[in-house]
Amino acid sequence: MIKKLALFCLYIATARGYAQSRVTDVLPIKISRTVTFSTQTGSNMSVDISPDGKQVVFDLLGDLYIVSVDGGLARQLTRGLAVNTRPVWSPKGDKIAYISDATGIDRLTVINTTGGQSQSFGTKERGVPIWGTEGDWIASNSRNPAGDYFMYYLGGGRVKVTPDINRITNFSPDSKFIYCDHIKMTGERCIMKYDIALGIQNQFFEFDSESIENLQNIKVAPDGSWLSYLVLNNVEYNLVVIDLVGKTKRVLAQWYCKVPDPGSGAFQYGISADSKKIVIGYGGKLHLIDVPSGKNDTISFLAHVKVDMGKLNDNHFKLDQNSLVAKYIRYAHASPDGKRLVFAALSRIYIMDLPNGTPRLLVDQPVNQFQPAWSPDGHWVAYTSWSDKTFGQVWKAGMNGAPPIQITKEPGVYHNPTWSNDGKDIVVGKGGRWFEDKPWIGGRDGPGYGKLLIVGVKDGDARIIADSIPLTSRQVFSLTGDSLIYTSLHNKSIGGTYPYLIVQSLGNGTRVIATGQPSGADEFFIRQIIVSPDRRFIVYLRQENLHLIPLLRSGQPSIIYDEEQQLPVIRFARGGFDPHWEKGGKILSWSYANKYYQVDPEKIVNAAFLAVKKRVKGETVDPAVLDVSIVPDKTITINLKVPRRVSTTLVALKNARIITMQDNKVIEKGTLLIRNGRLVTVEKSDHVKIPDGAIVVDLSGKTIMPGLIDLHDHLRLTAEIFPQQKWELMANLAYGITTAREPSGSHDSFGYEELIETGKMIGPRLFNVGRAVRDKPYYEINKLEDARIIVQNRARMGAVLVKQYLQETRQRRQWLLLACEEAGLNMTNEVEMGMRGFLGHIKDGSSGIEHNPLWGEAFEDVYKLVAASGTYLTPTLQATHGTSSAKLQFDSLFCKADKRLTHYFPNEQIDQRCMQWKEMKDNSGLQFLQSFLNHSRINAEIYARGGKITMGSHGENPGIGAHFEIWALQMGGLTNLEALRTATILAAGALGMQKDLGSLEAGKIADLLILDNNPLDDIQHTIDIRYIMKNGILYNANTLEVYSP
Asked: Amidohydrolase-related domain: which residues (predicted)?
């Protein structure tokens, strides 16, 4: 009892009403399959020894096992979808504590050594469990993300640890002291000894300065006579013991780690109660080390592994070569008389008669057209343009088909033209950044900031209204036309750089009617702010949803987005863009995909009143947002059909070697017949009769293989204003990438997809995820329904895939996966750098993972599990964690650039990459440049066991980077043919498109490469491309001109 009272002196506050939870596996996804195999090796095992020294507990592939110290058959203690790691035996030996996400979030968890139901404590506890000496208290050895440090009583309740204590290593056996790992303000690292009864701490031991930042898992022996730790030097671990009496240092064990993860707390080890033994896992084995003598015995074990998994969410799709129905519809709004609709699609302006007319082109021009706006009389449409050569302007076009009239005089990047009420002026945003004598068109997340101009419609004279505005926001004139309402980022009277809604009299006076919060300065969070002309409402876009705020009439500025959640806003459209006020503010319109909506804003407000009543009744509601469900007054379908660019000719490619990717099938002298963009025949030449009228190309001595599929191709596509052509897209096609997947773009990426499909831009066939679904504040997933809306919106745009990007909890990741399964979409995941998150993705049943994790050690157990899971792993060896990037290995090619490279890559890009390679070689040497092979070899091991490894270049070195990736995968141990399969048939499977892409078979789409040399002889011959065929159209690789024999 005295010891327990002393423990309470350690703490400064008790939690109110805290109770532990008794849980089984309550994750949203349920078990639907089990992978079973036997193993005598384990990867990244955390280990502890029982107090009586007779048993060892260890984690293996996310479950816990117990084995005798004499070795033998290991007993599996946990099952289910949860990832359970870092087990620690209780002082009495009857319980084991560990970290588990069985409740959907990482928590301290306790289970009896006989198994059964577990107890969970805390939230987001990601360290290593630490037991109080008597075994009735438990803590993590590190603070949670909120910076708090709690100890939990097994009987219920918790207490907060004093802030004087940093990272606990362990308690002393008599409960008088706590040993803590501490870094001084001066940088020295030491162990502090905290006296629980007196509440004071003193330095117990100070480490020397050598590699103190690489020390891990520091522990003080129970008898206090020595301490131990791990030290990581590059890829080598040492287990070090320091005698605290003689101050001598010894290395007890040393091992090589393929891809270390220094931040994961890997290689957790246990110390026996008598301070004589250390048990640790490394090299795939369990080791029992006698500390006095250094004798190292292996504890041999056999584990019959049972890994429970969710259903593999692996959907398949069929590629459509018929006319495309445009889904990327922007800036749709009705004419003042309500009879016509104007909108932007495919970088052109269209109009249609309401309600269901056929869209027609407003005016044909050799420039891209965006962001239309009706004149007040409905006779004209103003819009912005972009030309890669002459840049952007503002134009107006009438309804009679006459040539458009240029309004602005100076070229630039213009956004969101708005007519004055009398039709004499146009207010428009203009970007202000220039690079290399060219205006900056914008980035993936938006066009940035610029100036607000007012321009005379007749004379084009312009003057500046505001120096800094977010170019995504919209300005509006008041009903009387005597003032302008716009968004500014600066206000001298208030200060700061938050967004402000300014009312500016067309005389001189201005005032602030609303203000934002700091996060509002990032254009992704709050965009497209627009006030109703009658000043009753503000509408804005946040997280791809539309929100409405009644504008206060108190004389004080309203808050656009209240981070303190004191002023709830009304979220009325889950999925919506381009809000527009019509009829002077009586109608609010917006669009999403190819749907256009209208609603009376009063309907939204009335729905909000009902939502408030539900809140009063105690229903669970997000305190920051009032979600309302409304049926728009009008829903219009925009049916714009445009032909896809597909060959309509009959082509015969004869006498070539054909690498089919049908298993190992290679036809040494074969012929392909292509009709209407699809393969009709793939056979030996002497088995094929070429029809009359076919275009025949003799390819004797050439090699044909399927077009490359790059599954992780960051194309960095600009938002809002699109270029006419983009060199990165052209370089991709020129280097043989006929299909690319953009794993983290924006909503605008769907627009590029449609432009390429219809032949208006040159590039690979493109598949987009839209925006990757990141955690708060980007997207908020608080329940399954939130995930459903995110997924369904992407499905509405035609996506086949969703990208989950580091959602904080397992529960949110699983909700998103369940929503994908319901919608028939696949989901791929940004890898969690550590193996805990990686194992979670595997066990959940996701179809894909992007990037290799920090593998730590990887042995047969990991190879077998990943292979058996069916999950596609895209390593991206050119963007690796923990090693060099593979792109550095091959950047030497930029120092001897050929014609194709110089044709597509800007000179400054070539010079930069060449210089970077030379610097890395001189400073680091080729040994470092090849450290990515530690990743590549693991990928080859997984492939050898039937695993699905796929190629993704990460968009590094557009086009040519895909070849670098193939070469890097081959260097890890794949055969040349296996390396090619990662970029063809396996990549097609990851897309769910293996019925149409990835191999040369009758019925599949005619995407292929014609090579001068055989890549089966030398993998680097993949780059020797003469021609590329996409959709049956043959391009010259050096120029992308359509080949005509």
From this structure: 703-1032
